[in-house]
Amino acid sequence: MTSEEQTHGPTQAQSGCWDPLVSGGRQAPPLAVTGFAARQRASRGPGRGGQSPAAEPMAAEPEPEGRAAGPLLSDLYHITMALGYWRAGRARDPADFELFFRACPFGGAFALAAGLRDCVRFLRSFRLRDADVQFLASVLPPDTEPAFFDHLRALDCSGVTLRALPEGSLAFPGVPLLQVSGPLLVVQLLETPLLCLVSYASLIATNAARLRLIAGPEKRLLEMGLRRAQGPDGGLTASTYSYLGGFDASSNMLAGQLRGVPVAGTLAHSFITSFSGTEVSPDPMLAPAAGPGPRVDLAACVEAWLERVCVHLGLGVHEPHRGERVAFVAYALAFPQAFYGLLDTYSVQRSGLPNFLAVALALGQLGYQAVGVRLDSGDLLQQAQEIRGVFRTIAAQFQVPWLESVPIAVSNNIDEEELARLAQEGSEVNVIGIGTNVVTCPRQPSLGCVYKLVSVGGQPRMKLTEDPEKQTLPGSKAAFRLLGSDGEAPPTPRWSPSRSQAPHVILGAHPTTHTHTGSLLLDVLQLAEEPPPQAGQELRVWPRGARESCTVRPAHVEPLLRLWVQQGQLCEPLPSLAESRALAQLSLRCLSPAHRWLEQPALYQVGGGPCHQPTVRALCPHGLPSSSLLLPTAAGPGGQTDCRRRPVRILWWRLPEINMSHSLSPTTCYVSFFHLACHPLDCQGLPGWAGIRSQSKSSCSQGRPRPGQGGEAAPC
Amino acid sequence: MTSEEQTHGPTQAQSGCWDPLVSGGRQAPPLAVTGFAARQRASRGPGRGGQSPAAEPMAAEPEPEGRAAGPLLSDLYHITMALGYWRAGRARDPADFELFFRACPFGGAFALAAGLRDCVRFLRSFRLRDADVQFLASVLPPDTEPAFFDHLRALDCSGVTLRALPEGSLAFPGVPLLQVSGPLLVVQLLETPLLCLVSYASLIATNAARLRLIAGPEKRLLEMGLRRAQGPDGGLTASTYSYLGGFDASSNMLAGQLRGVPVAGTLAHSFITSFSGTEVSPDPMLAPAAGPGPRVDLAACVEAWLERVCVHLGLGVHEPHRGERVAFVAYALAFPQAFYGLLDTYSVQRSGLPNFLAVALALGQLGYQAVGVRLDSGDLLQQAQEIRGVFRTIAAQFQVPWLESVPIAVSNNIDEEELARLAQEGSEVNVIGIGTNVVTCPRQPSLGCVYKLVSVGGQPRMKLTEDPEKQTLPGSKAAFRLLGSDGEAPPTPRWSPSRSQAPHVILGAHPTTHTHTGSLLLDVLQLAEEPPPQAGQELRVWPRGARESCTVRPAHVEPLLRLWVQQGQLCEPLPSLAESRALAQLSLRCLSPAHRWLEQPALYQVGGGPCHQPTVRALCPHGLPSSSLLLPTAAGPGGQTDCRRRPVRILWWRLPEINMSHSLSPTTCYVSFFHLACHPLDCQGLPGWAGIRSQSKSSCSQGRPRPGQGGEAAPC
Lengths: 716, 716
Hints:
By secondary structure, chain A is an alpha+beta fold.
């Protein structure tokens, strides 16, 4: 049974008793995962069981998720730019931005898209309050026109359209996570909040997914990193999206209250050390689990069991720490249905374990079954084996078979390497709590998403900049995921370094040679206005980083970007967090093993295409490589040159490793094409623009003009 | 003039014009630091100029800093433990917790304490709302007594006392950042929120301080990492505490609005790429700066200047990108007093720079001075040199001397290494924007603070656990910082590996040999009830990690932990953020250069002591080392054994590298002492307790009992 089902299944509370394990199964139980999410949802309306996701529209939610981020959670320069746009009469120019990342995090080959729900909430609540506008007035020039502030006061996102990858989808470099369209001033203001809401959410979901892949489907993963989170809301975000990425529960109550994340928790060392052993319980009597039988003095019963346990373990009866035992009894009196032992406060073998066993056996005598133990120090794997061994012998000795399979939970700064050890074949560990290493993502604590203007007024826009990898791809794009018909992944194409080798690699997706369903082949980016790729039809694509095109015949084609908000209106209900979590696990299963590798994986291909039009377009998802130059041309297959305010085709030269500040004579280069709205004025100022002469498909040269020397502009 | 002064000094707004540089000085100006903080404060009451910090009590603030974290921002196990305490009748037992870290972050030798203000706000607003209690009822057993929930509803922090290091103080491993006392149930509930509020705040302040140390006092540092922050509130925390740690301003408007952090920002590449060059400004006319003279068509004026600039630079007049220039003109029309150029959208040398110069010179003709340029790609240092060179020649050519010193700002994933390069002697960079590398602390994204129970009902408590470094020091402590009379730091003691060498290292703090004032010597931890160290008196201390004691004669003794909240009442006003920032800079100046090193610094010593009592106490701020055993003794200097519920002295054996799971015969060991409330029952269950026999000060052996064999307990 998955945690999903558990969360939404019947709970103990509904059935009249409380046992956090009732729906979890013995071998992979939660620490104390509760049924909150199910009950919380039930209290808001119809249960989820027979309800389609579409029946839970965003608009119907009475803001159950806490306060949305506000418009001032943003960088000041958006406001100074807003004044600039407004003064220039451009506030309402239609504009398109795309939010994407340039490299997968953690050295892996995939990321999970997340944060959409928070973004939609942000858009829908976007309003500058009077206090916000007053603050802005205090930081802008005092002579700023009052009409500008009136404009700000009236702003909302009613003109904003949002397309996005569904939360839990696989995401790859260059493929937009969000496409945001609307009035230039507003969509510019959205930049930083959207980046803030998407970037960390996707990072943490991806991190959690990696940990889930390592742990395998059976181990229960508990996120417990709130105390190490980067700020209070960082903790809330981490708990929410580590659940989305594949964790089973969180220790963070606020994530339970606001987001419906299953919460879990038992006791800490401080609870145990707070008892010296001299404390007297105000009521040590406990009734049997079965019903209103005679109550028993649990503490006395425990002492009797301790003697038997110590004899069996070869310990002196005074060795186990009395304070620890009194603490266990106090906890058992509060949670007889869910007694839990934290074993390593003093000594696992000589104190924690015998004390736990004494209490568990005393409870067992009354019909209660202990639900788990936890270790927080030492060699976790080895101790788990030893403890399981003791459980088995004690279970046999005292005829309590349930004791054998009491879940063993571990924690203590567990990272990917330690997790792999704990999840190995034969491990007796059932539950793994991870804190710092899931919430702070120490391998790479930021995803580095960017939000780039790709068109204004329907005209593509791009930034060239001094760092080629920071250049952007112009034009609003459509994205498609091409799938083969097989269940296995395609052979990873190895792109040849020179064009003489393997000029066209055929990806292994031909239906006649592969019989499985749904494996991912590659993602294709193209301009939004182009016809989409068709299933079963051969397609030529230019994979990122490749020197040659390849052809692929997909069995299925999935459009990736869905329309969620149109002109401020929610178009379809957002999936619930649990649904996004399920999608994430489904998506990960479609990745080939080589793409799932956490170290040095095969890169998943994102390509430009298709070849449905006579003109070849090469899209480079990472921006122009350093060996690329953008230049207009009057030559080449299908090329046109016309700079008089009509879209023209631009030659896109990819040149092997050149230094742009020197003239060059590459030995090979090739030509592909790209749509770009090119005005005469746009042509100017491009680096390396003047003086470039196209010569042939296999060679070209650049004479870079020097100051004072001028440059010979290409015809434009 | 520091940013402090600038923030609280008169602003342009007050003087009728807006120029973000008016109070900043040309060589180290902000990008566009505003006078918000001063005005914001002024609008809330008397200005800060003549007001003492003490006049700003916490209680008088109408929550200007936004919503405090709520009680449910916590781990579930605090609530399950709360039920356990409550059921055991221990909810109101007086308890003491200490919050500290075990190792300085980033491999450095210091940290800055931060987050106190947020903690106090949290304590003062701590209340479980009905919705919170309802949520808790949904995750606790359904048969939980209603009286428990009544207890929760009535909870507040009126019984809580808080001692802490002032924000901005230097903090070292093991020295409590916070000491929290109060009813056991409540102070247990505070654990995770306080950790969450202190840990990241201190981490980010320390990170910012390191960056400030690298940058030196002259460069202006701007935090601009909100988009990469780990969650929205992570961004707010980062902006707030990077300012505390030494940054000058933040791009984050919310940090300005809620925390009074100076904010800064100008324009992004998207503003520039949004202009193609064909846009027509609705009002291109600009009046002179001096007054109501005839208005001038700025765009036309810029075109005229462009020709002159291009001739001078040897560029064709069509090379600079027209769209970029039109964007600059639009920005200049919105901010004539604060025109700013972002140079690298297309090409710095051939487009951004000439366009900036044309606009700046046109503005100059009208009496306005441009306030800065920014570079976001390429070799920032080299480009800054080149740009400064161009500024100088153009300034001379066109007789505009102010142009020479227009500030150059840079950004682009700047880390410590790149910052050191940018801050080197002769660098022409004036302003440095840092995002990801300040807010996410990628070198170490968490501080790892812990919150440990040290006493209950006046009785010390400790955890032993399986990992010696996770063991805690029992008892509520006092902490003192010992200072020499010199301005230089003491020689760093190098502790000898064997006791035969340097048995007592005298730290170099004798007043007769050092004449400067206020250098830090070391921190001393002792039990709260012991008399404090006295200035001028020799003191014996046991530095952490050292095998021997040393003596020190401090010129000054500073108690480190101040009482901020007593029984829920604020005892003294909290310093403002700006005051804490000033304290941080002051504190850092007291560190010796060797402790300030960012790589492999000399470790600052934290010692146990003093020797005012006949009994020696060795405190180990990192918990017991792995080579330590805690055992009772009837022998040794000053040792007493009495386990009948009175405090007794416990021998603390430190043994060189032993494996506790085997019997041992160390060749050397030595003895020191520690107070521990020792009950007969407490003695049991300690690891290695039974069978240990103390033999002498230089050798001992342990016969570990085996299962079934029993152990011979030491007399107790």
